[in-house]
Amino acid sequence: MNISAVGVASSDMKKTAEFYGILGFDFSNADLTQDHVEPVTPEGSTRLMIDSNQMIKDIFGEEPVQGNHSTFAIEYSTVEELNNVADKLTKAGYVFKKEPWDAFWGQRYAIIADPDGCLVDLYARL
């Protein structure tokens, strides 16, 4: 068994793609006018699926609501790479739930919410 994809809901596909683009996802071939968008990911990587709020409502019969603890994590190769991404996010106006810190478990770690409130953990091994 493996986790093949992670899904998030979006109220503004362009804004969501911009956020995840800063994290390193490639949207160069994505049609951001669609209700379902997936950035290009390397072979064997977990896919990121972004669905419009309207599509989620059509499927489930209610608006999507983000939890306060469900997250997924993105691993960066180096602490410097994570710090650079964190700087880009801050300059773009995003606010961290937890600024980057050196966690006792041996990782540089940060927590940020995407434009619709989905929590994303960012880390690199120390």
Low-pLDDT ranges: none
Reported for the largest beta sheet, the result is: 4 strands, mixed
Helix content: 25-40%
- The topology string of helices and strands comes to EHEEHEHEEE
Order of strands across the biggest sheet?
A: 4-7-6-5
Gyration radius over CA: 15 Å
From the helix content, strand content and strand pairing, which structural class follows? alpha/beta
Strand-residue fraction?
25-35%
Q: What's the helix count?
A: 3
Indicate the overall shape: globular
Please tally the β strands and state the result: 7
N-to-C span? 29 Å
Mean pLDDT: 96
Overview of the molecule:
The chain has 126 residues and is an alpha/beta fold. Helix content is 25%, strand content 33%. It is built from three helices and seven strands; from the N terminus they run E-H-E-E-H-E-H-E-E-E. The protein has helices at 13-23, 53-60, 79-91; strands at residues 5-10, 36-37, 47-52, 71-76, 96-102, 107-113, 119-125. The strands form two sheets. Strands 4-7-6-5 form a four-stranded mixed sheet, with helices on one face. Strands 1-3-2 form a three-stranded mixed sheet. Strand 5 (96-102) and strand 6 form a beta hairpin.
